[in-house]
Amino acid sequence: MKLPIKSHVTIQDAKLIWQAGVDAVIPAPLIAKNVQCFTRNDGLVLKIANQEYSLGSQGRLFVIGMGKASASMAQGLEESCSSLLKSGRILGHVNIPEGNPGRTTAIELWPARAAGCNEPSVAGVEGSYKILQLLEQATCPDDLILCLVSGGGSALLPLPIPEITLDEKLYVTRFLSGAGANINELNTVRKQLSLVKGGGLRRLCSGRRLVSLILSDVPGDPLDIIASGCTVANATTARDALTILQNFHAESDKSLDHIIHVLTEKSQKKESDDSVDDREHKNIIIGSNKTAVQAAAAKARSLGYQPRTHSATVCEGQAEATGRALIKESRQIFDGSRPDHSLFWSDDDFDAVSLQDCDCIISGGEPVVELVPREFRGLGGRNTQLVLAALLESLTTPENCIPIFLSGGTDGEDGPTESAGAYFDSTLINRVKTAIQAKELDPVDYLERNDAWHFFEKIDALFSPGATGTNVCDLRIVLK
Fold first, then answer.
1. With 0-12 CB in 10 A as exposed, 13-18 as middle and 19+ as buried, what is 375?
2. Residue range 219-254, pLDDT digits in tens
3. Taking Cα atoms as reference points, which of 93, 217, 88 lies closest to residue 153?
4. For the whole model, what pTM was predicted?
């Protein structure tokens, strides 16, 4: 039997559903779920994801980390290991963005970059050296190294190889990001230009006990890509990095000549990880985009919606295409028909809520944005770009079929801004139509100049929940 459509659907519902997804990946509760500390006859014991690690009477816990969620992860760890904290046997250093929530006693929270600027910095390099200095102290057989990894870790743990400078590393990162490289492509290059990425920390911890707790911000949760795989064997090579640069025509930019030269020389050398003793190394994912999507769906059901969900398992394409596809496919689903040539829905996805009953779509993933030259570029990120493309697609939709649409980064940031994303509904669409007719607003121009943030600022439709202390890609909510 077809369920009744909710009589009163609002933007507030979309925000509540989004927030429930974020709340499910707040790090402290995830840490508490996975880490317990207790005393046994032979001393203190840490239980991590059902495996016990004895610290005996002398062993210490060395906590290192990097990422947008690592401050909250560190705070949660201290709360879960209060007896170890009281005994003075926790030492730690974690690289985080400025302004990230978290309060710790023994673990130093190091501001490794400015808020809203997801790029490597001098402060990040200094913090990375501090982590290496801390690891040198872990010499007791009963010591345990615990690495807290979350999204944004690549920019927060910069330590370039001696052959290049930080400025060169920053330049190639900006080049690839601006060209529309996805996170897999970006991190494949960054790993080859770093002393600690691509298994660098793994090599430094060879022969010692190392456990990494990972909050994944990469679709499909590939361990060697999340935060550039610092504690994971590198699955890609310098030749792979060169291929990516060639695909984005890096040879046309003379400022990248030295980077290409360094990678070319590196590709001609034998690469080996055979000397690493990682028998006591563990990598454990404690949360991901799928976790957030499932929690958001539970909230939607509690509000009376019948949601269909999708969490991307591979990197998505351009934000504009993703936004338009979400509108087109939601329109078909809400009409009770299967989407044609779907970007999101496999046959398995259709085993859940029937198409006739679905009135809510929850989608998770991470698209990319190809940036125009700086002299033409405005302000925004992938979420505002995606929502603006979706808005343009909705301008031709009959008013009674316009959905409520919201997209936001789960970290509370969207590109170089402090907004998570944006939203619209039929009321906002009508305001935009009026402004277009009066030639007061040209959404196409804002989209083409990557200036979606200013567009949504003008119509008061920015979504700004503030820094969340977590990061598992993006959540998109579409309500009938």
1. exposed
2. 999 999 999 999 999 999 999 999 999 999 999 999
3. 217
4. 0.88
